[in-house]
Amino acid sequence: MVSSRLVFFVSAIFILTAQAVARPDFLYNFCELEKGNYTSNSTYQANLNDLLFSLSSNTEIDHGFYHSSHGQNSDRVYGIGLCRGDINVNVCRGCLNNAASLLTERCPNQKEAIGWYDECMLRYSNRSLLGVMETFPSFYMWNPSNVSVYYVNQFNQVLRTLLESLRSEAVAGGPDLKFAAGNATAPMFQTLYALVQCTPDLSELDCNNCLAGAFQNIPLCCDGKQGGRVIRPSCNIRFEIYQFYNPTTAASPRSRRPTNTDNKREASMVLSISMGVYLSVKRLRNNDGATNESTRIELESLQVDRGSESNKLGQGGYSAIYKYA
Asked: Which end of the chain is more exposed for a tag (fewer CB within 10 A), N or C?
């Protein structure tokens, strides 16, 4: 007969493993030390807990965007949650719940904090966040694989054209969703995929300006790279030569999901993928062994010209993260 001690040990291992799987690490999180701290068991902490708990039941999350506030006067807490525009409601809610749990651990007493996963972003503060375009804290990441030296200029031109088109779609989105995803044919029979997104509380002008600023930082992080991201509190962009988003739930050309008033309209995107044999050439940088299918963009090989210690924000979940102007 199995002893109770062994059963307890196995159960403990199972619970710890399940918790580790259920709550992955952030891409990056930032605790705003200058915005002040709250004390344990204070009214502010109670309001913060109430706000984060409401993530699991708030109906506004159906559109991938959540905003709320709890409390009064100096104890009032404001929160914003944003999910990537191609994920479903259940994945969105799960991502934000994970973020809520982990962010309060990483920033145990800070009144303002922000954390990013692949599929969502969560931030809270003691000041109103709604309708405010913010570019800090921000960071960028890149795929370690290089574009062939012979096709960098062509690749960059395709990328610029695709991102500008997606920006126009996202900016035109309504108050529910400002998101666009699409693809274009890149050199060497490759397909280039990209997405752009703003928090939908932004005006068209602020969304446009936020994305335009993010585009300008692509050369700083991702020039000659097969993929990259520029991530800000109010907007983000990503591109890869593999399909990293879900095309069946990506937004329609008007960058909005069906609402209760037009739920019979379905958003769809038909992707034509023409993949040939990619003729490899010697990489400009020593990145042998990297694969395009890696969904984790490695930052271990940061170059001096891509970031410096003076620009270092801190350690993310897996590597150093660098800020930009």
From this structure: N
* Tokens read off for 12: 């403990």
CA–centroid distance for 42 within its chain? 31
124 near 47, Cβ under 8 Å? no
Look at residue 8 and tell me if it is in a domain: no
- Domains in the chain: how many in total? 2
> Strands of 139-142's sheet, edge to edge?
139-142, 228-231, 235-240, 190-198, 178-186
Q: Could you tell me if 203 and 210 are in contact, meaning their C-beta atoms sit under 8 angstroms apart? A: no
Its pTM stands at: 0.73
The answer on 250 and 209 residing in a single domain is yes
- Same-domain status, 262 and 163: yes
- C-alpha 243: how far from its chain's center? 16
| Residue 115 backbone dihedrals phi, psi, to 5 degrees | -140, 145
Place of tokens 């902490």: 45
Question: Could you tell me the residue range of the domain that residue 121 belongs to?
Answer: 23-125
Q: How many residues does the chain have?
A: 325
**113 three-state secondary structure:** strand
Summarize pLDDT for 217-238 with one digit per residue, the tens.
Answer: 999 999 999 999 999 999 999 9
